[in-house]
Amino acid sequence: MNRKSIAVIVGLVAGIAFAGTAMAATFSTNLKLGSTGQDVKDLQVLLNADPATQVASSGVGSLGNETTYFGNLTKTAVIKFQNKYASEVLSPIGLTSGTGFVGALTRAKLNTMGGVTTTPPSTTVGCAPGALYSSVTGQPCSTTTPPATTTGTDLAVTLSSDSPATGGAIVAGQAIADLAHFTFKNNTSSEAKVTKVTLNRTGISNDTALTNVYLYDGVRRVSDSASVASGVISFNDAAGLFTVGAGASKNISVRADISASVAGQIVGVSLASVVSTVNASGSFPVMGGYLSVATATLGTLDFNTTTTPSATTVDPQNDYIVWQNTVTVGTHALNLKSLTLRNIGSISTGDLRNFRLYVDGALLSTVENLDSNGYVTFDLSASAKRMETGSRIVKVIADIAGGSTRTFMMSLRHAGDIAAYDADLNQPVLATAASSTFSARSATSATINGGSITAAKNTASPSSNIAVGSTNVKLATFDLRASGENVKIDNLNIQADTSVNNGGLDNAKVFFNGAQVGSTKDLSEGASTNFTFGSSLVINAGTTGVIDIYADAKTSTSTNLVNTETILITLNAGTSGNAQGTVSLGSLTVPSSAVTANTLTVSSSSLSATKYSGYGNQTMVSGRTNAKIGSFVLSTGASEGANVDTVTVALSATEAASITNLMLKDQVTGAQIGTTKGTPGTSNAFTMNVAIPASGSKVVDIYADILSGVGIGDIAADVTASGTGTLGSAVTASSVTLQTITIGSGTLSLAVSAANPASVNATAGSSKVKVGQFRFSATNNSYTVEEIKVLVSNNAATSTTGVTLEYKDATGATKSAFQTLTTGAQANATATFTGLSLYVPSSGDDSLLDVFVGIPTISSGAASGAAITATIDYNEGFKATPNGLTPITTWTSASADVVSSASTGYGTVYVRKTIPTFTKVASGVTTPTTGQALYKFDITADTAGAVEVKKISLAVATSTMNVAAISLYEIGNSTAINTTAAEVDSSGNVVFYAGTSANDTVIQVGAGSTKHFEVKGTVTNWGAAGDSLTVSFTEDASAGLTATSASHAGNLVWSDRSATSHTTITADWINGYLVKNFSDDVQSYSF
After folding, report:
1. Is the pLDDT of residue 341 over 70?
2. 553 neighbors 467 (Cβ within 8 angstroms)
3. DSSP letter, residue 166
């Protein structure tokens, strides 16, 4: 199809879409020379409304004398109209002058011009002789009597919101093209059964364009195929095409196979009428959209001639292949979106169950039963299965649950029952069979044989021990599954085998699905006992009956089976003919062979006490209240539970004298068990009523208050328990020794943390600078630190606005406290903190204390160069409470103060009015050359104020080459900053002075600004292997005192201009200690 043809089709579709708008007269039919009908007369009326396009000025065709015949006068008038509106009706399809043919675009323009009110004629365009509806417009033919339709407001019929819109495209030769969706809304309180639907073919197409037309409810086909006759498509089913529930809605889609020879046509359908068991209403015809038929190469789907299975008889069974075919996918991959099979046979809808669809072994969908019409539909629309080109095995399996003596044959009846979409074009392909036109693909008709029963031990058959002397105990559970038909079991053979008494079992009963069937009997030892059921044991086809065997743990003479004796129940092979199929009346033997249950062991009652592994030995301090001094587990055996009435806690005389308020608690709930022993003795019996089920357990904790002043020693309680088993026998738990609780002393220590902050220069006016981090640790008891004294030297205190502490409490929440410093006669100022809640666990884990200081501005009293450290006095530095104990104790952490600056380079804050930052910059040079930058760096001043630099030292190392006449420049200035030659100090460093070492010239960098510098020199002897040059800043390793610029010995000499009348001779010049960033300042060259 060429581009111009596509444009024409699109234009025609657009015109048809516009024609669907409600108007007084709508042009929906192409008109040409020789056309007749009311549309022609309406056209002449509209053309006569404009003098420029009138048909004739007088006589036939003139205003008021319009006719229903399209002659030469009308054609000439149409050409005038088309030329007048050429940009809208000619240019879009590549024409430059009118043709006289009234096509889609011309009609679209006519329809925008208002139209005229007309009276329906006696004949209608598009009506063939005998036709009920026009094949073009979808309107009733006036020369015939339209079919009687029930109209009203009860079953409202409308176009669905998701119906394919005009302008879409479908493909010639495709299957089940989606043409239109209609919504049927039942507004009544009764079910609406739709028995007839009449459609009209619309668009620019012929009857053969739609080869098979179907109605679908979702992916399920609800009609057989219908053909198009004179533009009309009819679906009839007196039993009902589909039903719409009371108050419900249903969307029905119209789909059709498209002829392979109709490319370029435009197809659509309208809903002309509906016949239903309740009144139907709608604006009939309900128009669908118009779709263009395009040409494209579709994928192919070809079914094999052979469809399995081929067996003519089959036993009831699970996982039977009911339909299978090897299909060939060609040209393009396909997306399988649905498959519908129909049963052709006499079985009931529930006889085949659990349908499963597989493609190449992959399970795609499951459907429980056939529907009421014998169909099974697999809906994959939400997750289509991609089938690549080549051979693909499509298989459906099911369980044969019933249907004895009846037949079934699963069949793919129509090509429309499989929706396989071309993966590239997204349109359904038309299936074929054996490379020819599709015909039904059916398995062989099979007759289901008579019913059967399978017997097996139930997975939940008892396996736990049973108690000595227990009665009415479930000993075995078996499954009996019926297939093919309902099966009545007349009797079963039950056998008991015991290992010691060999005397059978007393009072045996058979239960079917939870209810006893048959009489109570004693079981014989090693031989079958037959139980009869009359008609009370019938297992329905496809279901599993559960058989339970109960008896007493006693011989048939009522003697208790002994401890460790075993019991085995067997469902022996049935007597021939002990069961019968209720449909086939065939005899069955149930079970066909013996089925054994689990071997059970008879066990005497048991209760044990063990030390709880989740609580280990502990060390606690004296004076601790509510201390957990032990934990144990009470456990019962598998045969029966126990009711524990007494637990006894035994202590030595020394242990008993060390504690008060002894009590037991349920570990899970925390509830107290028994009463508190205020003054414990050596044997402490707790009375209780604690039920523990069979194979159950309960963890119990022992608590007590440890007396203050108790010396170092151990507490290790012994526990016994007693009670009554579920069956009434006494049970006792032997004594067990619990955890060892050592009474020791608690310790609390303080040290500088490993994460103590490095020393730093800080600008005056900073509100919060971290000066130190300390760690508390404890053993044997947790503590809460409540008071701390932080010391700052008097010299630095005037440069500190106050001290802030940050720590975590027992809940893990971060707490903060602030105090100012107070000074006195001592050398240090003190910030005293009370009411703290710093929690220190007993595990030895660190609890951290962060110390921050605030710094005032220089004008508010801060002294440039002041060195601030934080100290906690060992003598009275802090107070802590041992948790669980009453007294508050003052603890000393060491024999000396704990100071933040204990390690060199850490824990000191140096006050500066402002701070410079030095940063190395890439030189941009790969070969050192005379006159080019050998080293580049920036100096940035803090926003707090300008900085001045008098002296800069560089370490310059050379190998087999030389650099001389080294000078420092500000980038962009050709005059060297050092007016005298660079010096070499005693350490070999190259030293630059701004100006000279003695004059007042300085480098000044304004607040918040940056200046850029470079070092140049005369390079000689470069170019041989081994030549190298390395340049870096020379740092100062420790803080120096402030001094004048000339007298300062630092490698870097700079000033924060903190003196009142700052000059080079004021004592506010500082060395380079802690000036950043010198850590990455090396520039290296090598040849």
Report:
1. yes
2. yes
3. T
Residue 74 pLDDT > 50: yes
Q: What is the average pLDDT value for the chain, to the nearest integer?
A: 89
Q: 823: domain range? A: 747-912
Q: CA angle, 128 as apex, 126 and 131 as ends, to 5°?
A: 105
Would you state the pLDDT for residue 16? Answer: 34
Element (H, E) at 12: helix 3-19
Q: How confident is the model at residue 1078 (pLDDT cuts 50, 70, 90)?
A: low
How many domains does the chain fold into? 7
Domain of 281, CATH number, reads 2.60.40
- Establish if 132 belongs to a structural domain: no
Cis peptide before 309 (omega within 30 of 0): yes
**Distances from the Cα of 195 to the Cαs of 182, 614, 812, in angstroms?**
15, 75, 75
d(CA 771, CA 490): 93
d(CA 407, CA 781): 83
Contacts 24+ apart (CB under 8 A), 1048-1055: 1048/950, 1048/951, 1050/951, 1051/951, 1051/953, 1051/989, 1052/918, 1052/949, 1052/951, 1052/952, 1052/953, 1053/949, 1053/950, 1053/951, 1054/916, 1054/947, 1054/948, 1054/949, 1054/950, 1055/947, 1055/948, 1055/949, 1055/950, 1055/1002
CA distance 272 to 910: 96
The pLDDT tens digits for 223-243 are 999 999 999 999 999 999 999
Are both 513 and 541 inside the same structural domain? yes
- In the numeric block, which tokens belong to residue 786? 């409540």
| 146 in a structural domain | no
pLDDT digits (tens, 9 = 90+) for 257-307: 999 999 999 999 999 999 999 999 999 999 999 999 999 999 999 999 888
Q: b/e per residue, 6-29, with b = 16+ CB within 10 A? A: eebbbbbbbbbbbbbeebebbbbb
Selection from 883, 865, 788 nearest residue 1058 by Cα: 865
- Give a yes or no: residue 91 inside a domain: yes
Q: What is the pLDDT of residue 1006?
A: 97
For the whole model, what pTM was predicted? 0.46
